[in-house]
Amino acid sequence: MENEKDLNERDLAKEAEEKSALSEEEILSQEETAEAEPETDELSEAREKIASLESQVEESESKLLRVQADFENYKRRARMDAESAQKYRAQNLISEILPALDNFDRALKVEASDEQTKSILQGMEMVHRQLVQALKSEGVEEIETVGKTFDPHLHQAVMQGEEEGFEPNTVIEEFQKGYKLKDRVIRPSMVKVSQ
Amino acid sequence: MENEKDLNERDLAKEAEEKSALSEEEILSQEETAEAEPETDELSEAREKIASLESQVEESESKLLRVQADFENYKRRARMDAESAQKYRAQNLISEILPALDNFDRALKVEASDEQTKSILQGMEMVHRQLVQALKSEGVEEIETVGKTFDPHLHQAVMQGEEEGFEPNTVIEEFQKGYKLKDRVIRPSMVKVSQ
Asked: Could you tell me where the Basic and acidic residues compositional bias lies (chains A, B) (predicted)?
């Protein structure tokens, strides 16, 4: 083709015109140049292919990174959820048991008038201690009250009053025990607070 | 995401066809133009590049599929673990409470000799019922014993004996209550079994 061009010198100008016209066309349409020069076309096709594959690689690698990041986040969250579920696992049962424990506390306040009553109460006190111990081993704690500064997170004030020897805003009486499970308040204690 | 993948796969297949069509031309054109064309080097480099990129795409896509599959497996396992942890969440506290409940059962067997004792026992029976109810609401059940066929999963035989009116291998007496938490035996009951 090069030789042909050299031989046909007369047509050079014309060809140059055509070529420059073609170049403009090239910009517009690669398909037309494809017919004119098959080798170049293969190369440019290959380059397009490379570009497309490179963006595919990039895409699937960034997708992989995203999925891996999601996976890690999910694992971390699942671990935290499992820890929290483990930490407070007995909360439901504890909440169910507290009313029984309240009644137990009240029932033990009876003054024993004879030996049999005294012996029964002693047995019941042992059962009560065992029950409280079982709850303690799961992380249940009584909330401290009398003498402590009133804390609305721990104490529910149901009465106010004056009491000698107590600072203002101090718990002076406990009506019902409150409980925490580890760092979580299961039920605040019901108290009387000094003014 | 699945659709995207399907589309990509379809594109890949189409591209593969185009490529193999091209390859036939390539074989012919390479023979004809091998020495004439300086692009051949570039082109063969480009082809190597394409092959390497294609294997990269394949590799990172199969890696993506593996990670996605791992992720799904992990999610499923985490869900199952969470369900199981949730189902038996109170098991530890229940196991701690059972000895207290045993003593409670024993303490309530006293024969009341006077009014005060009777009244105290009534109060304690109420507390006991509340406690049993709290455990029940968490899924705790007493294991049935007397009259049931002996089942080594549920019953621990500590004695054997004869008893009129009982089939062989039947529980004839209960020494200590056993408990299940949902479908899991927390403690088998201690029983006497007929020979």
From this structure: 1-22
Q: Say if the ipTM goes beyond 0.85.
A: no
Query: Which CATH number is A91-194's, of 3.90.550.10, 1.20.1440.230, 2.30.22.10, 3.40.50.300?
Result: 2.30.22.10
Closest CB from B33, B64, B71 relative to A39? B33
Kindly state the helix (H) or strand (E) to which residue B70 belongs, with its residue range.
helix B39-87
Residue B91, pLDDT > 90, answer: yes
User: Which one has a higher pLDDT value, B37 or B65?
Assistant: B65
Interface test with A, best of B93, B105, B122, B128 (most A CBs within 10 A): B93
Taken in order A53, A55, A58, A63, the sign of the CA dihedral is negative
What pLDDT was estimated at residue A39? 60
| Cα A3 to Cα A8, A54, A159, distances in angstroms | 9, 39, 112
The CA distance from A130 to A110, in Å, is 20
CB atoms within 10 A of CB A141: 14
B188: pLDDT strictly greater than 70: yes
Structure tokens at B23: 């390859």
pLDDT at B166: 87
For an interface test with B, which of A117, A122, A181 has the most B Cβ atoms less than 10 Å from its Cβ? A117
Give yes or no for B113 touching A (CB within 8 A).
yes
Q: What is the mean pLDDT of chain B?
A: 85
Segment A146-160 shows an average pLDDT of: 96
Structure confidence at residue B111 (pLDDT): 87
